[in-house]
Amino acid sequence: MNTLLLNLLATTDGVRPSTTWFPENASTDNNVDPLFYFIFWICAFFLVLNAGLMIYFAIRYRQRNKQGAAHGHTHNTAMEVTWSVIPAIILAIIFIWGFRGFLDMANPPQIAPEHEIAVNGYQWAWDFTYPNGETVRGVGAEKPALHVPAGVPVRLTLTSSDVLHSVFIPAFRVKKDVVPGRVTQLWFEPVYDASRETVALDVPDPADPNQTVTLHPNEYDLFCTEYCGQAHSLMITKVYVYSPEEYATWYASMTVTPPTTPLIELGSNLYVQKCATCHTIDGSANTGPTWQNLYGSTHGTSAGPTLADDAYIIESIRNPGAKIVDGYGNNMSAFPNLTDREIRAIIEFMKTISDNAEADEDLTYGDLNDDGTLKTEGEADGSGDDAGGGDAPAENE
Predict the structure, then answer these.
(1) 240, pLDDT greater than 70
(2) Number of domains composing the chain
(3) Whole-Å CA distances, 23 to 42, 172, 224, 236
């Protein structure tokens, strides 16, 4: 009960503690928890009252002899009015309270354009695209994370590339379905608590692409709560809440690309995040053809015999249904958010697991132009340390 009272009376100056039924509240929402516990205690009260009366009446008025049942009352106006009016008042309170909370959720305050984030769901991960055009993706086997500033309203614009998904952030008390062919939205205002345990994240230093800076955001869970296929249970990621100062640093770091990142390593990270669910690298069968010895080979497709070269790989990523490998269905979703440099990284990785090609192990992210082509000697000399362009491989999916 003490925890409940603290939860109901707490201000929004910091993260409110977890309760029996809820995780800690890390947003300014003041509707969900109090209404939930109001309904919970009303239900608990009437459960005890009704069950107690039933047990009492069963004992008090049990049959003690064989005489017939007594003639009971058939009508009591006062009692009927009482058990009708009191529940009606309680239901009215719940409705008004809940409707006001719904209006707050459905009608966000004025939100600055720099705090609007596009979220795209697909089997089985999320992409988070920010106003600067950069898309956050994962590192290696990690899932892409959502990064937000504290103390300001943030709006998520939700879309799906394939099936029905649902964004659920328990600590912010928000949940919204992500429906194919539709655009939905949700908003929240996160709270940063410096006294709470934080995580350490190293990001490229905006002032020097070859250095890193350590940030200390609060960390919370983000789930998909709509069954979306085989790997639905893996569609879980993190939300990082920063102080305004640290968020500005993180936001600036998004356009910083460490030029020394090996391209094969980047391609391997992309494979784990984007492709490993359907394509193997050991020759075994799966939803899609194995990548082992795929590059440089010729195989049958819906368009006839096809050489798996750069052009074919690029086309298969951008338009998967164009040339479907014999024996497989048209099951693959397109990946329009992959940059040309990221696709080149995937190709270099595919070469490392093929006997038909030789990968350039010395090739780095900084050796490529934005369109994925190799820089000339002059370009490399003048822009080898370029910090801009494309998605930062520090958070690649």
Answers:
(1) yes
(2) 3
(3) 22, 9, 17, 16
